[in-house]
Amino acid sequence: MPVEARTRVALGALSAACFVSVTSENLPVALLPQLAAGLGAGDSAIGLLMTGYALVVAVSVIPLVAWTSRWDRRTTALVTLGMVVASNVVLALAPAYWVAVVARLVAAAGHGVFWSVVASMAARLLGPGRGGRATAVVFAGNSVAFLFGLSVSSWLGATLGWRTAVLAVAGVAAVTALVIRLTVGPMPAEGPSGGPRIVADRALAPVHLATLLVVTGHFAAFTYITALIAHYVRVTGPATSALLFAHGAAGLAGLVLIGRHIDRHPRATALVTTAGVAACLLVLLVVPGPVAAGSAIVAWAAPAAGIGVVLQGAVLRVAKGRPDLASAVYIVAFQIGIALGAALGGLGLDHDLLPAAVAIAVAGGLTSALVVRRSRAFGSPA
């Protein structure tokens, strides 16, 4: 296979790995009623399979990335994908809830390690000066997971049973790992770990702050997007599914546009992403009517899809010597933002103050844009 064609296939395989990682992570969302019935657990207990997953990632990612810092990067990706396969096979065979908990913990332990290396692997495949575009290509798997992965998993669970759906995810992960093994060459670790120096690098502090702000705001609203649609657009049922599909398609289109410009204009694309999230959600608060609200919810996906790309790109620019460990710290900030945003949005929902969750999202987007505007981490490379 020619080198250029092999590189394309390798990038596609890494994108597929992102797809299967996100789909696997969110399986309890797609299969909630089936899992609850099959494992004899309540909906809240199935929800804990998501919460516990995020907590394990946040707590384990830095020590595990440090421990694997001398591993070949391809080996690291293959091991973590193997953990996804094992996790979902055990989950599919789980006779009881506690086995499902153990199965989820296996995948969670490898989740953060995988995400700490996948962007730098893509950047090394495309070469210097193209890290942002490489990240956008592989992160397209995230958008496709939300667009198709969860809906197909839900359909499989409803028609063939949740165990079949979970085994299907395990199968896709296994095939993806095989393609990566065949198309991605060895990628030795890049230099010494850097340990505490990387973790405490002040140059990365603005990136972590921007991450915490924009992710907290985004997930304060996104976690309850179906409630937002019902409240502002005033539709439910199949119309909600159609709007969510349009939201996912807009996210994929936004990711393509951001990927084309991020390497040449990193600050501008980061500002479009952070301020764009705020602007779309501000429409919900100040422009009445279901048409404006529906349009804003769909448009919101375009800048939101770039959050991970612009932030991960900043990490790669600043931490050139040890991108995996620096990415691990960024992942912790991202996971804390998800948990904090979901909790704050949930408070607003519980107290019938859904606009408060939207206001938090607007504030998070605007304040993160201010950090981006002032930080050198988002400046153009020399």
Automatic annotation (TrEMBL):
The keyword Cell membrane applies. It is a multi-pass membrane protein. The keyword Cell membrane applies. One of its GO terms (cellular component) is plasma membrane. Keywords: Cell membrane, Membrane, Transmembrane, Transmembrane helix. Residues 10-376 form the Major facilitator superfamily (MFS) profile domain. This is Predicted arabinose efflux permease, MFS family. PROSITE patterns: MFS (PS50850). It is found in: Cell membrane. The lineage of its organism: Bacteria, Bacillati, Actinomycetota, Actinomycetes, Pseudonocardiales. InterPro entries: MFS, MFS_dom, MFS_Efflux_Transporters, MFS_trans_sf. Its main location: membrane. The chain crosses the membrane at residues 48-66, 78-99, 105-127, 134-156, 162-184, 205-233, 239-258, 270-291, 297-316, 328-347, 353-372. One of its GO terms (molecular function) is transmembrane transporter activity.
